[in-house]
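Collaborator request log, item 7. Partner lab (contact: R.S.) asked for a structural prediction of Polyhydroxyalkanoate synthesis repressor PhaR to inform their binding assays.
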Amino acid sequence: MAKSKTTAEGDVVTIKKYANRRLYDTERSCYITLDDLGAMVREGREFRVVDAKSGDDITHNVLTQIIMDTETRGETLLPVNFLRHLIGMYGDKMQSMVPQYLEASMTAFRKNQQDVRAAFEGALGSNPLAELTRRNMEMFQQAAGAFIPGVGGGKAKDAEIAALKAEIADLKAELAKKK
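Returned to partner:
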């Protein structure tokens, strides 16, 4: 998930849920929807949802409700077999390990996703066709230089020749000193 963004005071935003199912954002002093909370999650905003009457933290329930509403609208992310396995883990001896495992798996998945995205963007650069054309021209010039003298040399080859000539001159000077 994106780096957490919190309020100016550094606190987690508190959302109050009232008995009429309305959600109140205490930071912005307005009512919001589950879709707004989903957007806050995608933005990396830290929040907690509390029952307005009892003060109980119900963030887990509300986040689960957002997932259920999204899945009901046809935006399925969780495969049926995964849901079956997840339900099967309730009451299992290993149940207490599942949350940490799922969290670690999701963290690793997000990191891999970011790495792949960064590599993809880095490979494409700002204009992938221009870079591809430049590479193709370099390869063509190198290939042509192997068969046709004077073609494909360019500045790099001239600089290399000049460096070799300078090195030969230095070696000649050292030999002359030793004689």
